[in-house]
Amino acid sequence: MNIKEVELDIKKELRASMNGVLSARMREAGMPFKLIFGVELPRLQNIAGEFPLDFDLANQLWQENIRETKLLAIMLMPPEDFTSEIANTWAEKMVTAEEAQVLAMMLLSKTKQAKEICKAWIEKGNTLQANCACLCLRHLLMQGEDLRAEEQVFNRYKEKVQDANLHLRKAIQALTEAFNAKKETQNVEDTK
Q1: 77: left (phi over 0), alpha (psi -120 to 50) or beta
Q2: How far is Cα 171 from Cα 176, in angstroms, rounded to an integer?
Q3: Helix, strand, or coil here: 48?
C-alpha cells in the first residue's frame, strides 16, 4: 500500500469517528484549520495504533491543514527520524497549543535530540515552540533526566517572559514546579 492509499484509509477512519458537535465548537472557538473532524485524542491514538510508524506518511499528514491529520502525524512519526531539522520544519507549521502539547509528550520527549531542540526553542523559538519545549522538558524531568544545563536556560527565559499567553504560562509554571520538586528530592537524598 502506498502513502496516498494509507492517507485515504486514515481519512476514512477520521470521517467514521467524526464528532460533529465537537467539530463545530472547535471551529467556533477559532481553531485555524481548513477541516476539523472533532475526533478526541484517545480515539486518534487508537487510529494511530492501526498504522505503522512511517516517516513519509507522518510528513504527508503534517502538511495537511487538518487538525486530526496533524495530530496523527505526531503519533506516526518514528522518534529516531525526528531530527532537529525536521522538528524545526514542523514547528513552522504548528499553530495550536494542542499540537505543541501532543508533540511534546508523544514525540519530542522520545527523541535523542530532545534536550537540544528544547534549549533552542526556549532561547529562540516562538511562543508555541517555547510551550512545547517547556512541556517536553517537564516530561523528561519526570522521567528522571538530568536537566541542570537546561534549567539555566529556562531560568533566563522565564525572567524575560512577562506577558506570556495562558498556555505558555501554565507550561512555565509546570516546569518550574517540576524543577523545584526535583531539587527537594535531591536535597532530601543528600541529607540521608
Answers
A1: beta
A2: 8
A3: helix
Query: 144: which residues sit within 8 A by CB, 6+ positions away?
Result: none
Q: pLDDT tens across 120-162, in order?
A: 999 888 999 999 999 999 999 999 888 888 888 888 888 777 7
Q: What is the mean pLDDT of residues 47-55?
A: 95
**Quick one: cell of 109?**
520527549
C-alpha cell at 3: 502513502
Give SS3 for 35.
strand
Closest to 77 (Cα-Cα) out of 111, 100, 101: 111
Report domain extents, the chain: 1-77, 96-192
Alpha helix ranges (H) inside the chain:
3-16, 20-28, 41-49, 55-63, 67-76, 84-91, 97-106, 114-124, 127-142, 148-160, 166-191
Tell me the Cα Rg of the chain: 18
pTM, entire model:
0.90
Range name among 15-19, 72-76, 146-150 with the lowest pLDDT average: 146-150
Q: What are the b/e assignments for 113-124, b being 16+ CB within 10 Å? A: bbbebbbbbbee
Compute the distance between CA of residue 45 and CA of residue 2 in angstroms, rounded to an integer. Answer: 22
Question: Taking Cα atoms as reference points, which of 160, 154, 128 lies closest to residue 140?
Answer: 154
Residue whose grid cell is 506570556: 164
